[in-house]
Amino acid sequence: MSGTSFMPSRVSQSIFKACRQILSLCLIELISQAHAADLLNCSSQADRYINNTYGFKLASWVDRGICVRSNNNESLCYKAFDTTLKNLDSVRVGEYTGAASVLALLPTIGALLGAPTTEIWRLLTVVPFGGGLAMTLSFGGAILPVRVEDYENDLNRHKVAIKRSVASRAQQPGQLEDAQEEIYTGLEPVVEKILARMRQDESQQLAKGHLWVGLLVMILLSVGAQAAMIVVEQGGVIPWWCVSRWWMHLWYILVTENLTQSPFKDTWKLFVSDIPYDVNIRNGDSILRKLENPDASANQVLRQLGSLKAGTVELHGSKQYTRPRNAVLIMVSVTNRGQVNYRSALLRLFSKCASIATYVTGTALFASVQFLALPVAVMTLTLILAAGVFGRAITGWIVSGVSKTEPLIHVIVNTRQEAQHVIARILSLDHYGTQKPSGNEVRKVQVELGGHVFVSQRRVGSRSPWYLTILGVLAEPFDLRKVGVSETFSNMSQAGTDHSEVELGLMRE
User: C-alpha distances in angstroms, 452 versus 249, 265, 290, 292, 379?
Assistant: First the structure.
């Protein structure tokens, strides 16, 4: 009897539990549909333009674009987009269509920036992060020359900035020996120029105030352009890419790439400065033995700088911090002329094809954007054009002020072997011009290459190569006090070594 009464009770509980679950699912579905219906209605009062009653409101305009994409679902986004588009007044539709046509002019900004010049390239070389900032303001303009002659002709306007090639540009098969002799002859003026700079009494410091003012203005221009693009992205909606929130920055990243236009296949930077301390270098391997080896390539040697046995720096006299009088950045570049570099050719071809695709896609992107208000389009176009045009003008102004202190010497060669010889001569500056100029104190020279510091051709210290890569000539020369030892300590160490050797000899006897 008890068993019979238990079965109906258990069945009824199961039925009640199933009904409760079904009811919960129905309620969840109804709530989600109601929420989706609310999301589909993203219209605002500014969508209608009746007797100029409702003017443009930036906050509500941005909120509408965010509302359309708020669920981050492609299907719901298109439903919200379609519903909002149907609620637009015909006057607003005409305004938004005209605004899209205005924004479609952006891909042609490169034509307003003019022909490629070497100013941005020189700023990119002297102060890399400043040149990188100038490149971000190009907005698709070709800013780097593609011919070696463009860099050499710059000598006519900035004689101290770029030196001509130390080797002949046209070498016949029977003129190799003459070309080699020309390398030795053409390099002498460069060596004399560097030595004169290192040993002059007058300190030629970089005009940092001039540089920072220009960079600050460029940063403000960049921030204004980026802010305008963010506003357009949040308020405007792409019909064929509804959920995208950063579509304009995708175009911006694609059009900013310009590095494949450089005509040089290899470039090395050497940071040369005088040493303001009385130092002596002991022990260590000389790098000249590897650089002067005809069987060793420059890339092979320069990739193994860290394997050289380091020398010891002995400091004599005061160890009070002292700034070097002068510093100069030397670039050694190898051209592509006369050599078939399939990798560079394919890279440039790919870059050209990518530029064409970016131009077509960008024009279609801007022409098809919806819900774009005319005031926002005009503001964005104005800020981007101002950033591009004034950014290039400010770059030229910065370079003209920086070039007065002669911060850069550019040596252009034809082959890696020639570059290897040039680097060896620069590392051997202490061996040239040994006569003491009248009234000047002859200081030793330190050379930083690939993050390694060399004095008297021996590696004595190192630091991160990114320090020089990012700051360029704004970087302070390496302070030898970090690796130097006092003369007393060095003598004690040497005496201890000699004493140990004597005891070892007595024990052997």
Answer: 38, 22, 16, 19, 49
437/199 Cα distance (integer angstroms): 8
Cβ-Cβ contacts under 8 Å for 45 (sequence gap 6 or more)? 54, 60
Q: Give 287-300 pLDDT, tens digit per residue.
A: 888 777 767 766 77
294 residue type, one letter:
P
More confident residue, 470 or 342: 470
Q: Which residues of 2-33 are buried (b: 16+ CB within 10 A; e: fewer)?
A: eeeeeeeeeeeeeeeeeeeeeeeeeeeeeeee
Averaged pLDDT, 370-387: 92
Asked whether 449 and 302 are in contact (CB, 8 A), the reply is: yes
The Cβ-side half-sphere exposure at 308, using a 13 Å CA radius, reads: 27
Q: Which amino acid is at 101?
A: S
Reported as a single tens digit per residue, the pLDDT across 70-84 is 888 888 888 888 888
User: Measured between alpha carbons, how far is 427 from 408 in angstroms, rounded to an integer?
Assistant: 17
324: phi then psi, degrees, rounded to nearest 5: -65, 150
User: CA torsion, points 351, 353, 354, 356, in degrees to nearest 10?
Assistant: 120
CA 75 to chain centre: 39
pTM of the shown model? 0.73
Would you list the DSSP string of 278-338? EEEEES--BTHHHHT-TTS-HHHHHTTGGGSPPPEEEEES-------S-EEEEEEEEE-TT
CB 71 within 8 A of CB 77: yes
| Phi, psi (rounded to 5 degrees) for 413 | -130, 170
Phi, psi of 211 (to 5 degrees): -70, -45
- For residue 136, pLDDT over 70 is answered with yes
- What is the percent of the chain where pLDDT is above 70? 68
CA dist 3 and 360 (Å) reads: 80
Residue-wise DSSP of 403-417 = GGG--EEEEEESSHH
Q: How far apart are CA 489 and CA 316, in angstroms?
A: 11
- Closest to 398 (Cα-Cα) out of 167, 166, 120, 159: 120
Q: What burial class does residue 266 get, using C-beta atoms within 10 Å of its C-beta: 0-12 exposed, 13-18 middle, 19+ buried?
A: middle
Identify the burial level of 354 via C-beta atoms within 10 angstroms of its C-beta, where 0-12 means exposed, 13-18 middle and 19 or more buried: middle
The single-letter DSSP state of residue 32 is H
Q: Using CA atoms, how far apart are residues 313 and 280, in angstroms rounded to an integer?
A: 6
List beta partners, residue 238.
241
